[in-house]
Each structure stands twice: as structure tokens, then as C-alpha cells.
Amino acid sequence: MNYILFDDPLVHGALLPLTFTRPISHIRLGIVTIAEKWLHFLQGGISYLTEDFLQKKYISVWDEDNLLINGSLCPDQNLVKAIGKLAHGESLQCGNVLIALRIPYTLKDSKDIIAAAGNTTVHPYTGTLTQVRQLSDIFLLNGSQIRADYAWLTEGRISREITDPHTIMYNPSHIFLEEGAKTKACILNAENGPIYIGKDADIQEGSIIRGPFAIGESSIVALGAKMRGEITIGPHCKIGGEVSNSILFGFSNKGHDGYLGNSILGEWCNLGADTNTSNLKNDYGIVKQWSYVENDFMDTGRQFVGLVMGDHSKAGINTMFNTGTVVGVSANIFGGNFPPKHVPSFTWGGAEGLDIYRLDRALDVAQRVLERKALQLTPEDREILTYVFYATHEK
């Protein structure tokens, strides 16, 4: 069977700026990305049907028997079983959500999905779906997805033993350390949810961690950090200060004091020392957040919404982000007072005003940042960032 994870174009737009640089299924939710969850459950290779400007990096592979699956859905055993029963020319749907379809031909892009599904025999799915449809779903679903991922990632395996006599554990049977993970003089409390510590991760002295919590390979929890639960730190990150119900996709840093709550940082982001996010309005009202689909601020229906930051964006020391702020890709924010609640991609500045961040300079900075991890900015990455720049500044 040939598996392809497809992006619903409307959902892809609703998840900008995070999906400026990735398909929906490459969003990290729980311990791993949605795509990695499907890899585990399907036990087979996958490719992607996404927006044209992403397709060169995230390729689609077609065969005579293609099972296309909605990449905004998180798998479980019941859903995978129902999808596996589809025959040629059949699709699976729950309400207005197209779950999957099985076809013997090639589609040009994700916009052809709906038409292709219209030519299939539809089977209803009556089970429960876990779907990312808007930005706030990512942190709202994160705790439950950490629990779900922890179950299959650790099943039948033995955690590396914690030998440090000064590390305090509560409910140690729900704490799992991969090879090379280190803890020293910290508190790990898994009474409210599991704690997963990835390969070569380092939990430094004085850290207090409450589950559900996950940290990826080679990431660091800095001295004295307070992790309040429902937190995912992706690989090669550094996290410090006080954090609650937030996700860092990977290769991003919030290494110093300051508060991050109900927030999402993409890859290659950096928050300067004492950067703080507001996640609750003073009047306890519903938070409005920038929508790239509506090109306006829209009600989220939520009281608690912090910062969403796209890949390669940075904030200088003492930056204050207002409730529900959205920062695009490759933005550079600095200065006093609150920056705007929407900072477009490839802009430079803050409360005093925003200027266009020149593409060549932004690409140079991205290259220098990747070189610190012995990586290179690929031609495909440059093309994606160039697309985002011109989509933002030439309208």
C-alpha cells in the first residue's frame, strides 16, 4: 500500500504561520510529529500532498494503489483499522471531515482532493477524531497526545535508570529516559501525566518538571527552570524560566527567565533573556488572534492564548508579547513596549514600527544559525523562505 498524507487547503491556511514552512503533518503534537505517529501506526513509508510551494521538499510518491490520509488527524487503533478497510474508489468521512480515500491514480495537488473524494463511495466514521484545525488546538491537545505517544513509544521497553541521588521522582513508573539522558538535582513529578526525556537530553540542577512533559533528543532544561505541565520541547532546544502548556517544535531556544504560556514556537526560533508572553487578558475576555485566512483578527473562543511564532523568528531581550500575538516567519523583534499583535513574516522592528527584513540578510542569518548545529540551509528551504517573503511583501 502507498500511503500519502494530504493537507486540506483550508486547514493548512488556518494553521499559518506554522504551515508556511511545513505540511500540517509535520506539526509536533505530543512527543512526536503527526507524521511520525502515522509512520508508527501504518508501519510503512509515507509521502505528502501539500501546497505547491512546499512540494519540492515534501514530495509525493504515487503508485497504482494510493491511500490518502488527512494529515491533520492523529491516528489511533480504531481509526487506522477503519481506514485499512477501504477498497479502491472508497473514502471515509466523519461529518464534514474527509478522513481518507483510496484511489488508483495521481492527483496534481492538494486542491484536487475534494473533487477526487466526490467520485468515491463514502463510508461514515462514527468514532472520535483528534484533529488539528486551528492554532489553539495544538496546545489544547498536547497533554492528551503526550500521554498517547508515551504509551506506544515506551511499550515493552525499559527506561534508563536514574542514578543521581538528588533527583526526586514522584510516580517513577511514568518517567522514561532514553539512552544518554541526564538528570541532576531536579524534581520530576509524573503524578498528573508521564514525563518522557529523550536521548542525550539534559535536565539541569534545580529544574522542576510536572507531567505531562516531553523533551526531545539533545535538548536542555536550564538551571532552575519551572515546567508546569502539558509541555513539549522538541529536539535540540534549550528551555528555561517558567513554561506552561506550550510547544517548541525543535531547534529553538527560550534559555532564560521569563514566562511562556499557551504558546507555540516553530523551528529555529530564539527568545531573548526575560522575554515574557501574556496568555490571559486583564479583563478575562476571549482572545482575538490574527487569521491569515480572513486577513484580520478573529475570536479564538479561548481565554488562554499566548504567542505563536513561525520558523526562524527571533525576539530580543525583555520583549513583551501581548495576549494572542502571532509572529510570522523570519521576523526580528526588538525594542521596548509591546510589538504589534501581528508581526508579518520578514519584518524587522517592534512597537516603534516595522520595516521589511531584506530577504538576503534573513537568509544569511538563517544559514549562520543552522551552521551552529553543523547543518546547511538547503536549496529547497531557500525556495520556501523566498516564496513566503514575496507572498508577504508583494501583494
TrEMBL record:
PANTHER family: N-ACETYLMURAMATE ALPHA-1-PHOSPHATE URIDYLYLTRANSFERASE, NUCLEOTIDYL TRANSFERASE. Keywords: Acyltransferase, Transferase. One of its GO terms (molecular function) is acyltransferase activity. The keyword Secreted does not apply. It comes from the Bacteria. This is GlmU family protein. Signal peptide: none annotated. The keyword Transmembrane does not apply. InterPro entries: Bifunctiontional_GlmU_bac-type, GlmU-like, Trimer_LpxA-like_sf. CDD domains: LbH_unknown (cd05635).
